[in-house]
Every structure is written in C-alpha cells, then in structure tokens.
C-alpha cells in the first residue's frame, strides 16, 4: 500500500506507538525514510552488531549488549521534517520527545542555528623563560603554525576545514611562574575529529618549543567545544499548552518558574540539564557519536560563568506566548571509521537523512530543547510519575511473560487495574491466553471499543488448498481468534474519513474514483455500492490481524467496514450481500481472488470451499463439523507477502505449462478431500501427513520463502505432526498441527525471532 503524503506530513505517524514493530518499519519504509535495503536489514535483524566486529572495536570482547532503537516523531527543524533515531533504555523519553515535537510543530517547529564545527586542540608549554614574550612570538608566527598543522591533513583543508585560527593563554602555576597553552582551532567538517586534532597538536609541538624556548608537555584536544555551538529556539502559543485540566497560561507560567529555579540553583540545574541530555545522548548513541564528550562539554559549558546553571531559558514573549531557547556545545560527526564500523549507526544516519555534521548538531539541539520542554510540562501539570505508569506497565508485562501477540492487550488491562505488579500481569496474561483459545470471552482492549460483534470481520487460516483453490480445487479454511473491527460515526467534516491507528493510516476518501489509490479504491467500492459517498462519516478500524501475513487481513477489513456501515445506517444487509461486496474489494487487493478469504471473514466458520471455475458457476461452501477442536500453532514470519504477487506468479507459470500445473492442483484437491475425512474422525497423524505433502506441492509452485521453510522446520523438529504455509506464501505465516506440544513449538518459534500463537479450529 502506498499512501500519498505532503512533505509537511512525513514525520507525522498517528498512533505509531500502537503498531507492531514490523508495521512501524513497514510504514517508515512506505513514507520514504528507509530504502529497500535498509528495510530488509531492519526486518531481518542483519543491522545488529556482530561479536566478531565488536571484537575489532574494543579490547577483551566477550559479547554484545543490545539497546532499543526508538523513533522520535513529528520533528520539524528549520522547516524540514525529521524522523529521529534514538538509542535509549529509559522509558518515557521517546514518547515524551515525540509529544513535545508535535506541540512545537503546530507552532512552526524549531529554529536552530549552529556555528562551524570547530574543535580545540591544546598544546601545553612549561618552562618558557619569558612566557609573555613567548606568547607574542607565537601569535606573530601564527601562520607558520597553522600551515604546518594543515600540511598534516591536506584533504581536510581541501574540504574547507583544517586549522583556522590559534589562541595563546597564560595560566599562573601554584608553585610560581606561568604555564603557556596554545589553542589550535580546527574545523573538522563532518568528522568528529579527535584523532585529527591530536595529530595536529603532536605535529606542531617541536616548532612551538623552538619558538618559546620551553618544553611541550601535553598535546591533546579539549572536550569543552565552546566554538561548536547550537542555539535552538521554539515559540509556543498559550493555546498549544492547555490540557489535562490546566489552561495554557498556567502551564506557561509554571514552565517559566521551573526554569528560573534551575537557573539559580545548581542542585536543580543538574537534574534539569540531565533531562536535556536524555534526548541529546540518545541521538548521539544512535549516530555513533561520543556521548561522553558531549556530556562533558555540556556540563562544563553550564558552569562557564563560575556557577553551574541551566542550559535553557524559558520566558513569556511579547504576545504572551512561551519562548524556549537552548544554547550549548554540540561537536558531532557523520563520517569516520568509528561510525562506519557499526552497521546500525550507518542505517540510523541514513534514516535521519542529515547531510552534514552541522545539520546533525542542529537536530540534536532541537531534540534537547524538546526533551526539556516535555519534562518541565510534565512537572508542572500531572507530575512526572504519572507519565511513567504505562511505560512501567510495559516492563512489568514483559516480566510476566506477555508475548507480542497479546502484549498491548495485557498492558492496557494492567493500567486499567492500577495494580502495576508482576503477579497481576500474570493473571491478565493467563486470562488473555484463555480468551484467545476461546475458553472465555473477556472485555475488548481499550483501543477496540465495545461495539456490536457484527461490525467485525474474521481472520482466517487455510488448512489445505491455497493457490489450487483459485483454479477450481477445494480448500479447507477456518476462522481464527484474530479479527478486524470497525466503527462508523457521523461527522461534520463534509467527507468520508478513514482512520486505522494501528497501521498509521489516516486519509479522506476521494469522491472521484480516478483519484483513488488501492486502499481508497476498496473503500470507494463499498461506499459507491451502498450509495453513501456523499455522507459525512468517520470510519475507524481496529485490526488485530497482522497485515500481509496470509491471515486474511484485507478481507476481514472489508467485511468489518461494510458491517459497521450496515449497523450505523440500518441498511439491513444479508450475509450474502456482505460477502459479495467484500469479494469486490478483494478483487482490488488481489486481482483474481478465490473468494475464500471474504467467505470466512463474513461467516466465521470452518468450511470446505470450492470456487466456481466455469463461467457463471457459483462457489460452493459446506460447513465442516469435527469431533473436537484441532490444536494449531500459527507461526508468523514477519516478512510481508502480497497475495496478488504470488497468485500472479503462479498464474504466469500455469499459462506457460497448464498441464503440469493443473496436475499439481489436482493433487492438492485430492489431499484436501482426504483431509476432510481425517478431520471428521480425528485422525490427526494422517492430517499431519497430508499437510506436509501439501506444503511440498506448494513449495513446488515456488510460493514459499526461506522464512517459511525455517518456521516449518522448527515446527516439525519440535514435534508438530504436520506443518505448511498458509495463505498466499512468499512470506506471511505457517500453520503447524500440534496436539499436546503447542507450548514447545511456540517457544521455539519465538526463540528464533518469529511470532507465534496457539489456536483451536472447529
């Protein structure tokens, strides 16, 4: 799916935090922040630092420790959108930054300027017989020293950098006499420059000694980079500050007062500035920069007047607005061996899209100011602890064993209880798992409002028969406890608005069919067919079926939207009409669908299905009854697969050699019919064998992938009687028949980095 966005919206992702990791990566790829290669690296995990590479970076390596990479969203800096990679383990930082950036974005964003990326090298001279005279000589012969320093790095000079100026300072020594210190001011351009500057200091040491008559002792860079500064500014109208029971003026005045506290009290200033560095350091780590050096520079700069104080200033503007300013050192780089040795750093820099070290410094300045605003706003409104509750609940849910499939539901229910405890989380985990197996029916999650059950479409698995079903063979399909729900609400917007928070989709339906993209065409078919295109309505969709994973998500969405409209406008649609309209939507999504997805999405039953293959021949559907539920594990590869693509490849192959491929389809059809018999007498061993053979035939159709094959192998090695891909293939999902050992199979799949869930069919 491709969603058109204006350049001003590229860093806006509604409800991004509600998405799965794979959906987040997919969306930033679709928005153009990631190349195809970087998308595959993130999905596969190939970007992570390997031990053998870590062993070349530092001494005595024994392993690699991971940290989360989050994205700071909504950033508008100097009129340009940014998605900011953040490497940080502390909860609330990423969410707080994105929230602050959203507020500032609504008020024209951050304005940031930076000075040249100058690093200071220090050459210490002791024992000069006439320090004052030596200082004068050094300054008179400054050009000689600069030329010598630049001769050591001519390529840096060619790029517009190099040693630009020199200063000389005298310091009184405690034991008497003066110490002379040469400051070499070096523009390092896009490099961090530490080794470069140290080399220059070493290179001019002998000439400095001959000029001064003294002895050079230390020659090393300074991390007080007060010649490489960023100055960030934002202006927020008071109406943008109101919320959570506080008016804008109250919040503005509270932030100003809190900042004043940090300006006059070093104990408060230390915590105030630490909050700024929460954001700055996270970008530094993500971009491979020396966060320790940045920290040292920031705190030294905060104490430059002889008293430690705040790095920011917040005050009331002339029109009553809140004005925030940050002024701090920011010497960073975007090139160099230390950055290039870690593939994740290179990926993060490409994602951020900065073209120079100065641009990176300016983004980091905006991040520091945003983090400070967010912390101060929280302190003067609901308090910082309240904002941590959900994030603490996430950590507790992980400790309680909540897996990816139920994680969001567990967190939401845990927060609702107010008991953010591991024991409580374990209770909720068990309850949610029982509901997923159909043992009990609990409340829907907070992002899925209590609605009529008819306003939903069922996800599905195909037990046997995919692809062959397109050519008139039988297939067995079953609903799973994953559904798509939808609501419809009247609005005064003057159009049809579609919102899918979990997938980051938000758009208005174009009334002219010629201007509709693929997603809009499906929605347009529904509204055109029901004669609702002129209505003002908001459709909100809540999918628990993962996208493009072979589990019938597009059909389930179509059915959910149709039923939401049917319910809202009291249209009185029969199931047959819902199914027929959903099939038309599937034609948009998949080209030549079999009709099985929309049928299961509509009826929600275990069925034997056969498509009408002859002209005007209607499909047939027979509900299947089994003695007791059949235990299945679904393994989800996280590699998206477009059914239209795999169906198209099979069709091309069939057209080239119809006899060969129709023979394969006939074999699959026979397997399906035998599977029906096995299911009806609960012969699971036979059913497993039939599934394994069917998978082999599907592999022969070249619709498998290495992820699918790995999942199938994992399932079989851990006791599954049968395992095969389900749905279109090319990625997506597999199903495994696992009587008595589902936990073992699920654990093995998750250990290998895949998602897995238990279901029962029948």
List the helices and strands and how they pair.
Blueprint: H1 21-30, H2 36-44, H3 51-54, E1 69-77, E2 80-87, H4 93-105, E3 111-114, E4 118-126, H5 131-140, H6 142-151, H7 154-158, E5 162-172, E6 178-187, H8 194-212, E7 215-222, E8 229-236, H9 248-264, H10 266-286, H11 291-302, E9 312-316, E10 322-329, H12 337-340, H13 343-352, H14 357-380, H15 384-387, H16 389-399, H17 407-417, H18 422-436, E11 456-464, E12 474-490, E13 496-500, E14 505-508, H19 518-529, E15 537-543, H20 553-569, H21 575-590, H22 596-603, E16 607-610, E17 620-623, E18 630-636, H23 643-656, H24 658-680, H25 684-700, H26 706-717, E19 722-726, E20 733-737, H27 742-751, E21 755-761
Parallel strand pairs: 13-15
Antiparallel strand pairs: 1-2, 3-8, 4-6, 4-7, 5-6, 8-10, 9-10, 11-12, 12-15, 12-16, 13-14, 16-17, 18-20, 18-21, 19-20
Helix pairs in contact: 1-2, 4-14, 6-8, 9-10, 9-14, 10-11, 10-14, 16-17, 17-18, 19-21, 20-21, 20-22, 21-22, 23-24, 24-25, 26-27
């Amino acid at each position: 799916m491709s969603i058109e966005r204006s350049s001003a919206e590229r860093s806006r992702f509604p409800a991004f935090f509600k998405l799965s990791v794979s959906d987040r990566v997919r969306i930033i790829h679709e928005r153009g922040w990631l190349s195809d290669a970087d998308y595959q690296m993130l999905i596969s995990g190939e970007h992570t630092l390997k031990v053998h590479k870590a062993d070349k970076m530092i001494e005595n390596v024994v392993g690699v420790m991971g940290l989360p990479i989050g994205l700071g969203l909504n950033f508008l800096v100097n009129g340009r959108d940014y998605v900011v990679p953040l490497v940080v383990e502390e909860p609330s930082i990423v969410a707080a930054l994105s929230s602050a950036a959203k507020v500032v974005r609504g008020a024209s964003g951050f304005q940031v300027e930076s000075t040249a990326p100058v690093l200071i090298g220090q050459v210490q001279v002791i024992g000069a017989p006439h320090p004052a005279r030596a200082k004068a000589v050094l300054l008179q012969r400054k050009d000689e020293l600069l030329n010598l320093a630049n001769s050591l790095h001519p390529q840096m000079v060619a790029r517009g950098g190099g040693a630009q100026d020199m200063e000389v300072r005298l310091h009184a020594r405690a034991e008497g006499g003066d110490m002379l210190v040469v400051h070499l001011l070096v523009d390092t351009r896009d490099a961090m420059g530490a080794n470069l500057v140290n080399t220059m200091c070493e290179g001019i040491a002998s000439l400095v000694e001959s000029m001064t008559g003294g002895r050079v002792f230390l020659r090393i860079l300074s991390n007080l980079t007060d010649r490489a500064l960023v100055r960030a500014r934002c202006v927020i109208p008071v109406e943008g500050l109101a919320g959570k029971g506080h008016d804008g003026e109250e919040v503005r005045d509270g932030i100003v007062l809190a900042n004043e506290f940090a300006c006059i009290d070093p104990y408060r200033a230390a915590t105030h500035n630490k909050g700024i560095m929460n954001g700055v350091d996270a970008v530094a780590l993500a971009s491979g920069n020396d966060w320790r050096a940045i920290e040292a520079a920031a705190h030294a700069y905060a104490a430059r007047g002889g008293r430690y104080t705040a790095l920011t200033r917040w005050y009331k503007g002339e029109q009553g607005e809140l004005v925030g300013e940050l002024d701090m050192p920011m010497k960073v780089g975007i090139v160099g061996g230390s950055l290039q040795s870690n593939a994740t750093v290179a990926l993060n820099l490409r994602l951020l899209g900065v073209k120079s070290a100065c641009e990176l410094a300016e983004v980091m300045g905006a991040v520091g100011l945003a983090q400070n605003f967010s912390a101060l706003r929280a302190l003067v409104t609901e308090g910082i602890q309240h904002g941590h509750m959900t994030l603490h609940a996430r950590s507790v849910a992980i400790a309680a064993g909540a897996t990816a499939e139920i994680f969001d539901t567990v967190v939401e229910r845990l927060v609702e209880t107010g008991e953010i405890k591991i024991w409580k989380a374990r209770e909720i985990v068990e309850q949610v798992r029982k509901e997923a197996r159909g043992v009990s029916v609990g409340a829907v999650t907070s992002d899925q409002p209590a609605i009529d059950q008819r306003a939903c479409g069922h996800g599905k698995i195909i037990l046997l028969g995919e692809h062959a079903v397109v050519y008139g063979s039988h297939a067995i399909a079953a609903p799973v406890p994953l559904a798509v729900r939808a609501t419809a609400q009247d609005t005064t917007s003057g159009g049809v608005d579609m919102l899918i928070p979990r997938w980051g989709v938000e758009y208005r339906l174009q009334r002219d069919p010629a201007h509709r993209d693929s997603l809009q065409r499906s929605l347009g078919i529904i509204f055109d067919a029901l004669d609702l295109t002129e209505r003002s309505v908001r459709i909100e969709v809540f999918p628990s079926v993962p996208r493009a994973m072979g589990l019938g998500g597009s059909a389930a969405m179509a059915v959910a939207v149709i039923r939401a409209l049917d319910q809202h406008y009291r249209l009185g649609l029969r199931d047959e009409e819902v199914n027929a309209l959903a099939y038309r939507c599937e034609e948009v999504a998949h080209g030549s669908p079999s009709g099985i997805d929309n049928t299961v999405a509509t009826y929600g039953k275990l069925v034997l299905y056969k498509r009408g293959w002859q002209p005007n021949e209607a499909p047939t559907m027979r509900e299947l009854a089994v003695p007791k539920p059949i235990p299945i594990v679904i393994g989800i590869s996280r590699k998206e697969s477009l059914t239209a693509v795999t169906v198209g490849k099979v069709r091309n192959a069939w057209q080239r050699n119809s006899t060969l491929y129709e023979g394969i389809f006939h074999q699959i059809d026979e397997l399906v019919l035998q599977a029906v018999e096995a299911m009806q007498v609960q012969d699971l061993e036979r059913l497993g064998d039939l599934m394994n053979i069917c998978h082999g035939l599907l592999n022969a159709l070249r619709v498998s992938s290495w992820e699918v094959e790995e999942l199938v192998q994992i399932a079989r090695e851990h006791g599954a009687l049968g395992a095969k891909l389900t749905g279109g293939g090319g990625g997506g999902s597999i199903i495994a028949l696992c009587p008595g050992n589902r936990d073992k199979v699920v654990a093995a799949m998750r250990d290998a980095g895949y998602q897995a869930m238990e279901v029962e069919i029948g």
